[in-house]
Amino acid sequence: MNKPLLASFGIATLLALASGCSTMGVEPWERDILARDDMQLTADPVEAAIDDHIYFSKEASSGGRGFGGGGCGCN
Amino acid sequence: MTDSKKSVSATLAAATCSLLGSAPTAPVQAQEEPSWDFNTALLYYGEDNDRVQDLSLNILGKRYFVDDRALTLGLTVDTLTGATPNGAIRQGVPQTFTRPSGSSAYTIPASELPLDDTFKDTRVALSAAWEQPLGRLWKTGVGFSGSFEYDYTHLGLNGSLSRDFNQRNTTVSAGLAVARDEWDPVGGTPIPFSPMLDVGDIGNKTGTETKDVIDAVLGVTQVISRNLLVQVNYSFSNSSGYLTDPYKFLSLVDGVTGDTITRVPAPGAEGPSHEFRFERRPDDRTKHSLYTQAKYYMGGKVLDASYRYMTDDWEIDSHTLDLRLRWPLGERSYVEPHLRFYTQSEADFYTISLVDGVELPAFASADYRLGNFDAITAGLKYGWKTRSGSEMSVRAELYRQSGTIPGELLIGNQVGRETYPDLDAIILQFSYQFGW
């Protein structure tokens, strides 16, 4: 897939999601499950950072979830 | 504060922080009691065949203030040792290489994959982030990251902004990070494509080099139902400057036999037994990625599934699928199996050798991490809560890389002799989370 096309596709997906989502969701009193520690998107931030650094050092891809913590990852 | 308000705060904190790269450790605490939450981990990462070993200590502390403001501070200390492929191909005879420092040499036995065992490094990484609401629906965050190694320094700043819509069921976020990294390799930075020289000869080395990185993330987090949360992020990343690895090089080979051209060190000197050329990568790289993650609660069990597609202008495409299932064992403990699948195509300048007597390509690297490979991670985590409310967990995982060298890159005797340097590594981690 060429790059401008991917960028457009990515942004369009986000916009579609944002507008299409206005009918989804829960009432404020229905958030008991969503508030659980294990339902957070990054339930264990240290483990996520460790994994990101390992794979950043060993593979040619990185990121997606957020920003990395730096380092050369050169060996 | 009522329970439902706390829940909203927790969800919002999670949504915003996932973009910031510094995620929340726990739902927001009661406003009247500012406190620290600590999330710590000790990690061992070890590759087979005496390749890279890493022992790592990680501490993340988060302090909550009134009005949902929070400060997050992070510290990581890594100690790295072990050997790594230097980029040269195997030969039927022993091969001698000058170490990156230029002060000595090492020899690899015949038919063995050339590994450089020089690496010994300590990395200290620091991070700080501040987040706070702006009015009722907006939230902002700013952060700093620094990473310091003997030969490499990273300094970065990041910021993010998010807004809630639709009764806080939708959160739209944007983040930006800039970084400046500096290389100061042991023995100097080799001039790209320059030959490896005898011990003590630094005629092909220069000083420090820098690279600049800009990352941007746009994301939407959506509550689908009471037990399903979905996030989609688009990320853009541009690196410019010195993107070459100063410790990697390529064998210069005969165009017919595929064997590396032999070389004789100067009289009385120690030096390379064959011709090697330091690698050269483009000085610009732009990556795009689309990342999506879902958290799904199923009667006590929680499924965490994510997928990332990445593509860049080095012609590398990759797909990553990550699955975790947290399975409770009674009230206080759980097990969490983890599976991760990864595949990438090779960079357009990836090759395994350079041909003697032929004009050099614009760029070339034999770094196996730019090659064509698949990887799988399989692991298990066990976690439990103590009576005091702290949490502990242990995890053990196996990471396996296996790749292939495209047939058209193999010349003469390289066919059947050269194989991708597959990798097996284990990951062992102990984590401890507690409040202060």
Largest sheet of chain B: 16 strands, antiparallel, barrel
Report strand order across the widest sheet of chain B.
1-2-3-8-9-10-11-14-15-18-19-20-21-23-24-25
| Count, helices of chain A | 2
Helices and strands of chain A, in N-to-C order?
Answer: HH
Largest interface: A-B, 59 and 121 residues
Q: Count the E strands of chain B.
A: 25
Subunit organisation of the chains: heterodimer
How widely separated are the two ends of chain A?
Answer: 30 Å
What percentage of amino acids of chain A are in beta strands? under 5%
- The average pLDDT value of chain A, as a whole number, equals 80
Rounded to the nearest angstrom, the radius of gyration of chain B is 25 Å
* Helix proportion range of chain A: 40-55%
Please report the distance between the alpha carbons of the first and last residues of chain B: 21 Å
How many E-type strands of chain A? 0
Strand-residue fraction of chain B?
A: over 45%
Q: Point out poorly predicted stretches of chain B.
A: 1-31
List low-pLDDT spans of chain A.
none
- The structure class of chain B reads mainly beta
Shape designation of chain A: flat
Sketch the major β-sheet of chain A.
Answer: none
Number of helices of chain B: 1
